[in-house]
Here is the input.
Amino acid sequence: MKRKNILSRMSYAALGLITHPQDPREFIQVFNPLSSSHYTRGVVTEVHHETPDSATITFTAGEGWASHKAGQWARIGVSVNGRRLWRPYSISAAEDTAPSVTVKARGRVSEALVYGTKPGDILYLERPAGQFLLEISPTALLFLTAGSGITPVMSMLRTLMPRRPDHDVVLIHSSANQESTIFHDEILELADQFPGFKPRFHFTKSLGRLTLREAGQLAALHPDILERTIYACGPDEFVGDIEAAVQEADGNIVVERFDTRLLPSDYSGPGTLVINNGTEITVPENQSILEASENAGTELPHGCRSGVCRSCLVMMSDGAVKNMRTGEMIDEPGMIQSCISRPSPHAILEL
Amino acid sequence: MTQTLPASSPIQLTPQQLDALEEKFDAIHDEILAQRGEEDARYIRRVVKLQRSLEMLGRGSLLFAKHKPLWLLGVGSLSVSKILENMEIGHNVLHGQWDWMNDKEIHSTTWEWDFVTPSSGWQRTHNESHHVWTNVVGRDEDVGYNLLRMDDSQPWKPKHLLNPVMNAILAPGFEWGIAMYDIELNRFMTGQKSKKDTLRDVKRTLKKFGRQSAKDFVLSPALASLNGSGVAAIKGFVAANIIRNLWAHAVIFCGHFPDGVEVFSEEDIENETRGGWYVRQVLGSANIDGSKLMHFMTGNLSLQIEHHLFPDMPSNRLSEVAPRVRKICQEYGLPYNSGPLPVQILKTWRKVFRLALP
Ligand code: FES
Here is the structure.
């Protein structure tokens, strides 16, 4: 592995002498779309629709990717109307198999992935990350999931059950109804195959929301619930409820939450600018990020101050800005023009 | 802020007219920028792919340059690939025209081009000095590149007798000329640029110069010599570089120097509004008429007027806004300097000769 790395680096360096100033990988890209010196790229190999509004996208990843562990997620970049946008997605494939993500069409990026992706398309990737990991132990397990929270758990089930068919695993999955339940049939198939796996569905359209706010509700969910290691995954509120209840009862829980907040689409009042060293600057309504930070004593690079030269590009790592000239909103991490942008309503700069 | 155009200008517009004109140009700019999307992204990716394929074909063929047809194929495709790389891709990417894609593979902050001058230095002299101060003598050094006398307002010195000779030398060595110019030795001499910055730029340029020359004139020919094509390959690489330089020089000179293009003084642009800035871009630039292919091969710099009005507009959109720009110019009596390539080149050279004399 190491040796291969050194060899490939040496051959890139040698090739680079005649591809200068481009990296040789940019030329290789003409034949092999996985090759890039800027990103880890992936190529979609299969798109499988799970429900009308969700799909599992399987891909092959190029250099820079690391094989995932069950329960992890990865940030994926897609071109949405020409612009690269990034979102984190749980990986649904079993460990040691081709990576896949299962996406529900909610928000621009997810919609583009579910409705607009076809085999051969390019994905941009960051390495799998996350601490929602499966400990292979003899303990009995209980998964509590809601909505897309099933995705990382699916990866766990697919990994775990074939390895330990005798495992005692309970899944309680909450979703609107059967049609909208991702992996519904596969879950039942797994249960047929592995008697130790006992799934249960909670359809909120008929049964109402699954809450655990009142005493006794947790115990009523499953008889030996507190003897099991509990994995909970789903929207923030759902996971928060369960976590509180389990902790109160002294149980054992591992959680993963999905942030379902949506960014404000437009904003024109005063904004807040946070610079990575911790400086916080209030940006009055008619001021640019460049002016406001200068007034606060922080020099940013600049030239013309009028949007022409682009010497004022700075990295926005989080938040959103509005272009004061065109009204365009940018709410993705990336380089922004500080002389004609203002926080909308907040932006974090990486200097 | 009210301002009319400089008194010396043949065009006189009222402040209200200038404001109206500003609104009209802004509207075109914002409309097109809001339309950018998948199609545009696909366009630039395809051009990049075409350029890389041509470069591999060209370089590959030149490795067997002792065979005449391969020599020709090599020189042809390498010249075209270098022209595309510098103009339709490099120049435009370095302007940030494709930054909206939020893609490090095609971004003004990560792109390094196949040209002797390093991207960063060029971005400063070009995007900042030239595009902001277009044709303002003393601020925009592109007026003659510190080398030539390109306007009556530049005081004549005896060295300007060599104007045509200098230009004839500059043309085939254009990229080296630009590299020298981007170091801004003149600004260092007058104390406007620190020693530290100048040294940094000299070092960067030398490094790039070394690697660029090694690639085309040493390493690739050395590989070619393995099959006895070494000498033919050197000739081929030199030819491709010269063809690219001649073409780039011609196109770029046609953008600002044909007769009828105006220059300005610093007083002219005191209190300049955005409307005034737009007018200056029109008066200071010139277009080359031509086919789609022509626009493509000039990196759409044949649409110099539109490019100067909207430097951040993706190049593939310039031809579609040109008729609208022309109409606005007509409406306000602004000259829209445009002509076929031979005519514009002729006009440029005529000026080079005329201004050699006092
Ligand atoms: S300072 Fe010139 S574009 Fe922002």
User: Anything to note?
Assistant: The longest strand of chain A covers residues 40-51. Chain A touches chain B through 35 residues (CB under 8 Å).
